Amino acid sequence: MSSSCFMTSSSHLNGNIGKRQKIHPCNSRQVCQMVQDSESGEKNEDEVEEPVIATSTVKIDDHGSDLTDRFKYKMNALLGKFDPEIKDNDNESTDGNILNAMLNFPTEFEFNVVGRTKGETELAEEYVENVKQVILSHAGDENIECTVTPRGKSFTKVVAKARVESSTMITNIYEELASMESTVMRF
Length: 187
What we know:
Elements: E1 5-7, H1 10-13, E2 20-23, E3 31-37, E4 42-43, H2 69-78, H3 97-102, E5 107-116, H4 121-139, E6 145-151, E7 155-164, H5 167-179, E8 183-186
Antiparallel strand pairs: 1-2, 2-3, 3-4, 5-7, 5-8, 6-7
Helix pairs in contact: 4-5
InterPro entries: UPF0250_YbeD-like, YbeD-like_sf
């Protein structure tokens, strides 16, 4: 092959449809010589039999789909194909899968409840005893540590720390504490 090259581009073909032109390498804008005129069928001895522009295609074994991998990954993610297997639904009516993931059982757990005691010391002491009895009935731990804090004139906050065996036990204790008549909040 000589120092010049063969080139087909849309800019050279605009006026000369189907004509391949020989472009001088030092000035690609200058047309040196016409190589082939497809309309007349004339051929020049400088003509090269190999293709002028090589095209390549990337084949992905996705059963004939022409979508990109990036798009496929995004669609599969949106459709939930990469989601972990769901063992149990975790919602307001199930025992805490989140608690099971966060805590290593058995563990010490703090139960926080607020009860209406109307500012009376006897009602506050009775409320604290009731909270201890509820926790004792489920946890079986007799070493329950309680911290009592008055909240305003009418309420008492009780923080009870006890050893629990599972998230189900925590849920059951909180449900029973909530069912007590004087309990206003639990957290």
